[in-house]
Amino acid sequence: xxxxxxxxxxxxxxxxxxxxxxxxxxxxxxxxxxxxxxxxxxxxxxxxxxxxxxxxxxxxxxxxxxxxxxxxxxxxxxxxxxxxxxxxxxxxxxxxxxxxxxxxxxxxxxxxxxxxxxxxxxxxxxxxxxxxxxxxxxxxxxxxxxxxxxxxxxxxxxxxxxxxxxxxxxxxxxxxxxxxxxxxxxxxxxxxxxxxxxxxxxxxxxxxxxxxxxxxxxxxxxxxxxxxxxxxxxxxxxxxxxxxxxxxxxxxxxxxxxxxxxxxxxxxxxxxxxxxxxxxxxxxxxxxxxxxxxxxxxxxxxxxxxxxxxxxxxxxxxxxxxxxxxxxxxxxxxxxxxxxxxxxxxxxxxxxxxxxxxxxxxxxxxxxxxxxxxxxxxxxxxxxxxxxxxxxxxxxxxxxxxxxxxxxxxxxxxxxxxxxxx
Length: 422
Ligand SMILES: Cc1ncc(COP(=O)(O)O)c(C=O)c1O
Fold this sequence. Notes:
Helix content is 39%, strand content 16%. It is α/β, with parallel strands linked by helices and 422 residues long. The protein has 2 domains: 39-70 and 322-343 and 353-420, Aspartate Aminotransferase, domain 1; 80-313, Aspartate Aminotransferase, domain 2 (3-Layer(aba) Sandwich), CATH 3.40.640.10. Pyridoxal-5'-phosphate binds next to helix 4.
């Protein structure tokens, strides 16, 4: 089967008709080489330094790593490099060693896991939490064990991939992004047809950086007898008076039925959590296969305990982050870039077609700025963009360097929109 590489996306190689897995891998390798030769394959670039606003990156295997201003880390508050968190991680390893050795049910549950479950629950002023090895599985495994074929998941279209994976054995209805009129119609139709009706949304959406109107969504859920599950992976630490995220902003933290999230972004580690009422959490501890049969976090998770404290003890990081977000957003808007409706630290520069976005990524890299081109299937086909995560630790000089790089890319590619169209 012929695939036109100039129009292809990763999705076209998932299941090529008539090709066995190894032949498909060969064809995919040719596609990767094609992208690489054009300079568009800036995924999986290796960094020789840690996460941060400036990273040493190997852009060419024959050359020395380059120092680039970076917007690829969702380490919004810069906590991966915070000395107190590093110290807590080292102390955790000193006390417990380097691994958990087993899954939680079979001997791998240590006091730091229990502390973490209690601490993340009380961070949201709730009673019970369960932790998973990643934020992805926290979501997918929870949905998998709660929703069966007599139930329904009602999902805002651009939710993160982990939701779709979790909904494979249940009924699924997808509504257009933030279209509450459509959500209401689906809720009305589902009211008496299914046992569990669960509306699943993100607090902050991972590609556009915009938010779900959680107060209105909760009201609809209550009216039609549905549960509400919110993943706020990108909102915690960034949004809300005290950084409790989108639920704090909308005043619904105590009422959301299931809160899910990650320790891999603001909390500068790895792992995920689910917060709900105690019986539901206890059900998941014994029924959720990915929790039961997979080793949980390593003692480096002690750093997360410190990170949760620091959110309250050092609010200056969130303030600094918002200074940077506002500065960067107004710089990009002045350049005529279309940054959509972002309300968070995720800043997209919307370009449209995949080839121009790939070329923009290449030019930005050439100008010393590392960010991710996002194309189909991560976003719809005409919605390709450069996606950036702003950090509290970016300096104004680094942000200016990125703004200059966008100006340079715009001169070559005309990616800015006429201001009257914005
Ligand atoms: C909204 C959302 N939820 C969950 C995840 C996955 O989290 P983790 O990296 O902990 O698996 C992501 C990852 O980017 C995300 O954007």
